């Protein structure tokens, strides 16, 4: 869309994620990833997920919206 991209992931990880429910294939949106914080599926691209070189799929574990909420809570608590 606006310079976002979907990192390639190993086929074994894709099949595992689809089998355990942490990913779904939507006919319109394509591959979606589960966010454990907000309990929702989001398209697996960098528009919704931050980049992480330490994760096998190249994206962070929680969506950008949840990460923003956590950082706001920390900032307001200080």
Query: What is the helical fraction, as a range of percent?
Result: 25-40%
Q: What is the tally of helical segments? A: 2
Principal-axis shape equals globular
What strand order characterises the main sheet? Answer: 1-2-3
* Mean model confidence by pLDDT: 91
Please give the radius of gyration in angstroms. 13 Å
Give the helix/strand class. alpha+beta
Task: Walk me through this protein's architecture.
This protein has two helices and five strands. The strands form two sheets. It has a three-stranded antiparallel β-sheet. It has a two-stranded antiparallel ribbon with strand order 4-5. It has one domain. A hairpin with a 4-residue loop joins strand 2 and strand 3. The radius of gyration is 13 Å and the shape is globular. With 78 residues, it is α+β, with helices and mostly antiparallel strands. This is Zinc ribbon protein.
């Amino acid at each position: 869309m606006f310079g976002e991209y979907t990192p390639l992931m190993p086929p074994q990880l894709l099949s595992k994620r689809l089998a355990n429910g942490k990913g779904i294939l939507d006919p319109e949106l394509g591959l979606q990833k589960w966010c454990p914080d907000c309990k929702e599926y989001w398209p697996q691209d960098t528009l919704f997920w931050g980049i992480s070189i330490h994760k096998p799929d190249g994206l962070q574990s929680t969506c950008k919206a949840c990460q923003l909420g956590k950082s706001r809570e920390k900032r307001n608590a200080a």
